[in-house]
Fold each of these.
Amino acid sequence: MSPSSADQLRRLGFEPGDIETDRVSVWPDNADAVHLFGARQTQWPVSANGIAIGLHYEALPVVCQALGIPRRRRSRVFQELRIMELAALAELQRPAD
Protein backbone atom coordinates (compact mmCIF):
# COMPACT_ATOMS: atom_id res chain seq x y z
CA MET A 1 0.00 0.00 0.00
CA SER A 2 1.39 3.39 -0.93
CA PRO A 3 1.98 6.06 1.76
CA SER A 4 -0.68 8.30 0.19
CA SER A 5 -3.23 5.46 0.30
CA ALA A 6 -2.42 4.86 3.96
CA ASP A 7 -2.90 8.59 4.70
CA GLN A 8 -6.26 8.57 2.91
CA LEU A 9 -7.40 5.58 4.95
CA ARG A 10 -6.40 7.29 8.21
CA ARG A 11 -8.39 10.41 7.26
CA LEU A 12 -11.42 8.13 6.86
CA GLY A 13 -10.84 6.58 10.29
CA PHE A 14 -9.16 3.36 9.14
CA GLU A 15 -5.70 1.92 9.62
CA PRO A 16 -3.97 0.21 6.67
CA GLY A 17 -4.40 -3.19 8.36
CA ASP A 18 -8.19 -2.67 8.46
CA ILE A 19 -8.46 -3.05 4.70
CA GLU A 20 -7.58 -6.21 2.84
CA THR A 21 -5.40 -5.39 -0.13
CA ASP A 22 -5.73 -8.71 -1.95
CA ARG A 23 -7.24 -8.55 -5.39
CA VAL A 24 -10.83 -9.63 -5.75
CA SER A 25 -12.48 -11.37 -8.65
CA VAL A 26 -15.11 -9.51 -10.63
CA TRP A 27 -17.52 -11.28 -12.93
CA PRO A 28 -17.10 -10.10 -16.53
CA ASP A 29 -20.72 -8.88 -16.61
CA ASN A 30 -19.92 -6.48 -13.76
CA ALA A 31 -16.48 -5.31 -14.92
CA ASP A 32 -17.65 -2.11 -16.65
CA ALA A 33 -19.62 -0.98 -13.60
CA VAL A 34 -16.74 -1.75 -11.24
CA HIS A 35 -14.28 0.17 -13.42
CA LEU A 36 -16.73 3.08 -13.65
CA PHE A 37 -17.23 3.10 -9.87
CA GLY A 38 -13.47 3.11 -9.29
CA ALA A 39 -12.96 5.90 -11.79
CA ARG A 40 -15.47 8.04 -9.88
CA GLN A 41 -13.64 7.89 -6.56
CA THR A 42 -13.10 11.67 -6.46
CA GLN A 43 -16.69 12.48 -7.42
CA TRP A 44 -18.37 12.25 -4.00
CA PRO A 45 -19.88 15.57 -2.93
CA VAL A 46 -20.38 16.00 0.79
CA SER A 47 -22.87 18.01 2.82
CA ALA A 48 -21.87 20.93 5.03
CA ASN A 49 -21.35 18.53 7.94
CA GLY A 50 -19.07 16.25 5.88
CA ILE A 51 -21.50 13.45 5.02
CA ALA A 52 -21.28 11.95 1.52
CA ILE A 53 -24.54 12.52 -0.36
CA GLY A 54 -24.01 10.65 -3.63
CA LEU A 55 -21.97 10.67 -6.80
CA HIS A 56 -21.74 13.52 -9.28
CA TYR A 57 -23.37 12.27 -12.47
CA GLU A 58 -22.34 15.15 -14.73
CA ALA A 59 -19.10 13.54 -15.86
CA LEU A 60 -20.55 10.08 -16.49
CA PRO A 61 -20.66 10.35 -20.31
CA VAL A 62 -17.04 11.46 -20.46
CA VAL A 63 -15.86 8.78 -18.03
CA CYS A 64 -17.83 6.06 -19.84
CA GLN A 65 -16.28 7.12 -23.12
CA ALA A 66 -12.78 7.23 -21.61
CA LEU A 67 -13.25 3.71 -20.23
CA GLY A 68 -14.50 2.46 -23.59
CA ILE A 69 -17.94 1.44 -22.31
CA PRO A 70 -20.14 0.97 -25.39
CA ARG A 71 -23.19 3.24 -25.63
CA ARG A 72 -25.52 0.24 -25.78
CA ARG A 73 -24.35 -0.85 -22.30
CA ARG A 74 -24.33 2.52 -20.56
CA SER A 75 -27.90 2.41 -19.28
CA ARG A 76 -27.30 -0.97 -17.66
CA VAL A 77 -23.91 0.07 -16.29
CA PHE A 78 -25.49 3.22 -14.82
CA GLN A 79 -28.05 1.09 -12.96
CA GLU A 80 -25.24 -1.12 -11.64
CA LEU A 81 -23.28 1.97 -10.60
CA ARG A 82 -26.29 3.23 -8.63
CA ILE A 83 -26.51 -0.07 -6.74
CA MET A 84 -22.85 0.27 -5.72
CA GLU A 85 -23.37 3.96 -4.89
CA LEU A 86 -26.27 3.16 -2.53
CA ALA A 87 -24.26 0.42 -0.82
CA ALA A 88 -21.28 2.76 -0.44
CA LEU A 89 -23.48 5.54 0.92
CA ALA A 90 -24.93 3.19 3.53
CA GLU A 91 -21.40 2.50 4.74
CA LEU A 92 -20.17 6.09 4.46
CA GLN A 93 -23.18 7.41 6.38
CA ARG A 94 -23.16 4.73 9.07
CA PRO A 95 -22.46 6.17 12.52
CA ALA A 96 -19.03 5.38 13.93
CA ASP A 97 -18.95 2.67 16.59
Note: The chain has a mean pLDDT of 86.
Amino acid sequence: MKDISVVNLKALGRDQMENYAIVCSGFSIKHLYNTAKTLCSEVKKLECKEIINLPTVAGRKDDSWFMVCVKEVQVHMILYEYRDELDLEFRWLNKPP
Protein backbone atom coordinates (compact mmCIF):
# COMPACT_ATOMS: atom_id res chain seq x y z
CA MET A 1 0.00 0.00 0.00
CA LYS A 2 1.17 3.54 -0.67
CA ASP A 3 0.09 7.17 -0.30
CA ILE A 4 -1.18 6.51 3.21
CA SER A 5 -2.94 9.36 4.98
CA VAL A 6 -4.75 9.56 8.31
CA VAL A 7 -7.71 11.87 8.95
CA ASN A 8 -8.90 12.66 12.48
CA LEU A 9 -12.67 12.63 11.91
CA LYS A 10 -13.44 13.44 15.53
CA ALA A 11 -11.38 16.64 15.41
CA LEU A 12 -13.34 17.66 12.30
CA GLY A 13 -16.59 17.35 14.24
CA ARG A 14 -17.86 14.43 12.19
CA ASP A 15 -20.67 12.56 13.91
CA GLN A 16 -19.56 9.01 13.17
CA MET A 17 -18.83 5.88 15.15
CA GLU A 18 -15.25 5.88 13.90
CA ASN A 19 -12.87 8.61 15.06
CA TYR A 20 -10.16 8.13 12.44
CA ALA A 21 -9.93 7.26 8.76
CA ILE A 22 -6.91 5.82 7.02
CA VAL A 23 -6.82 6.12 3.25
CA CYS A 24 -4.30 4.28 1.11
CA SER A 25 -3.78 3.22 -2.50
CA GLY A 26 -3.06 -0.13 -4.06
CA PHE A 27 -1.85 -1.12 -7.53
CA SER A 28 -4.52 -3.70 -8.43
CA ILE A 29 -7.96 -4.86 -7.33
CA LYS A 30 -6.48 -8.19 -6.25
CA HIS A 31 -3.85 -6.35 -4.19
CA LEU A 32 -6.53 -4.25 -2.46
CA TYR A 33 -8.82 -7.20 -1.74
CA ASN A 34 -6.02 -9.42 -0.40
CA THR A 35 -4.70 -6.62 1.79
CA ALA A 36 -8.19 -6.00 3.21
CA LYS A 37 -8.69 -9.72 3.90
CA THR A 38 -5.24 -9.92 5.54
CA LEU A 39 -6.02 -6.91 7.76
CA CYS A 40 -9.24 -8.58 8.93
CA SER A 41 -7.46 -11.86 9.55
CA GLU A 42 -4.62 -10.27 11.53
CA VAL A 43 -7.00 -8.24 13.71
CA LYS A 44 -9.04 -11.37 14.46
CA LYS A 45 -5.84 -13.22 15.47
CA LEU A 46 -5.20 -10.58 18.14
CA GLU A 47 -8.27 -11.77 20.06
CA CYS A 48 -8.58 -8.32 21.60
CA LYS A 49 -11.56 -8.18 23.96
CA GLU A 50 -12.02 -4.46 23.27
CA ILE A 51 -12.81 -5.16 19.62
CA ILE A 52 -16.39 -6.34 19.98
CA ASN A 53 -17.36 -6.26 16.29
CA LEU A 54 -14.81 -8.25 14.33
CA PRO A 55 -13.82 -6.52 11.09
CA THR A 56 -15.08 -7.60 7.70
CA VAL A 57 -14.34 -6.32 4.21
CA ALA A 58 -16.92 -3.91 2.79
CA GLY A 59 -16.96 -4.17 -0.99
CA ARG A 60 -17.21 -6.89 -3.60
CA LYS A 61 -14.19 -8.86 -4.72
CA ASP A 62 -14.00 -6.95 -8.02
CA ASP A 63 -14.51 -3.42 -6.60
CA SER A 64 -11.91 -0.67 -6.82
CA TRP A 65 -12.52 0.50 -3.23
CA PHE A 66 -12.64 -1.56 -0.04
CA MET A 67 -13.26 -0.50 3.53
CA VAL A 68 -12.51 -2.26 6.79
CA CYS A 69 -13.68 -0.83 10.13
CA VAL A 70 -11.67 -1.75 13.21
CA LYS A 71 -13.06 -0.33 16.44
CA GLU A 72 -12.74 3.46 15.95
CA VAL A 73 -10.84 3.39 12.65
CA GLN A 74 -12.06 3.22 9.05
CA VAL A 75 -9.46 1.87 6.63
CA HIS A 76 -10.16 2.79 3.01
CA MET A 77 -8.16 0.97 0.33
CA ILE A 78 -8.62 2.51 -3.10
CA LEU A 79 -7.25 1.55 -6.49
CA TYR A 80 -4.50 4.03 -7.33
CA GLU A 81 -6.18 5.23 -10.56
CA TYR A 82 -9.34 6.29 -8.65
CA ARG A 83 -7.72 7.85 -5.59
CA ASP A 84 -7.61 11.40 -6.96
CA GLU A 85 -11.10 11.12 -8.43
CA LEU A 86 -12.66 10.10 -5.09
CA ASP A 87 -10.52 12.51 -3.05
CA LEU A 88 -11.91 11.39 0.29
CA GLU A 89 -9.55 13.58 2.28
CA PHE A 90 -10.89 16.70 0.53
CA ARG A 91 -14.47 15.61 1.18
CA TRP A 92 -13.79 15.13 4.89
CA LEU A 93 -11.77 18.31 5.35
CA ASN A 94 -14.21 20.61 3.54
CA LYS A 95 -17.87 21.26 4.24
CA PRO A 96 -20.32 20.64 1.39
CA PRO A 97 -21.37 23.72 -0.59
Note: The mean pLDDT is 87.
